[in-house]
Design goal:
Layout lengths: L3 H7 L1 E5 L7 H5 L3 E7 L8 H10 L9 E6 L5 H20 L12 H21 L6
Antiparallel strand pairs: 1-2, 2-3
Length: 135
């Protein structure tokens, strides 16, 4: 569905300093990755795909229609790149997924007959429990 190789070339990756504890290492190494992807400027995506992404990811996109993800889970810049790219692909694929329309099924005649037969049986059963009418 998506041309991942071509789409990955459109991702802009930037290494930034990671926040939090970590001592000297965190202060001198930029391991956190910030991935940005401009949906409207993409060449790989079709116009229909862009519209679908803009609608489904409206809460996650900036005003300039850019998807921004950050990943600082690992102390390795390379691992963070991989995680960010995987996450971007899963988000985009999720936005492009369209659920199949539900086709309402008709209730089979046999099922309707069985239900009515059961109702008649229960009705007769309850009628047989009543006191007889002696008038």
């Amino acid at each position: 569905m998506l041309d991942k190789v071509a789409l990955e070339k459109e991702f802009k990756l930037k290494a930034i300093r990671s926040s939090g504890s970590g001592g000297q290492h965190v202060n001198k190494v930029a391991t956190k990755i910030e991935l940005s992807f401009s949906v409207s400027l993409s060449i790989v995506l079709t116009q229909d795909q862009k519209e679908l992404i803009l609608v489904n990811l409206s809460k996650r996109l900036t005003k300039e229609q850019v998807l921004i993800l950050q990943c600082g889970e690992s102390r390795s810049q390379l691992k963070n790149k991989g995680i960010a790219i995987k996450r971007a692909f899963s988000i985009l694929e999720g936005a492009l997924h369209v659920d199949a329309k539900r086709k309402p099924t008709k209730i089979p005649r046999a099922v309707i007959r069985k239900r009515l037969k059961n109702k008649k049986y229960n009705s007769d059963l309850k009628n047989s429990r009543r006191k007889p009418n002696l008038d």
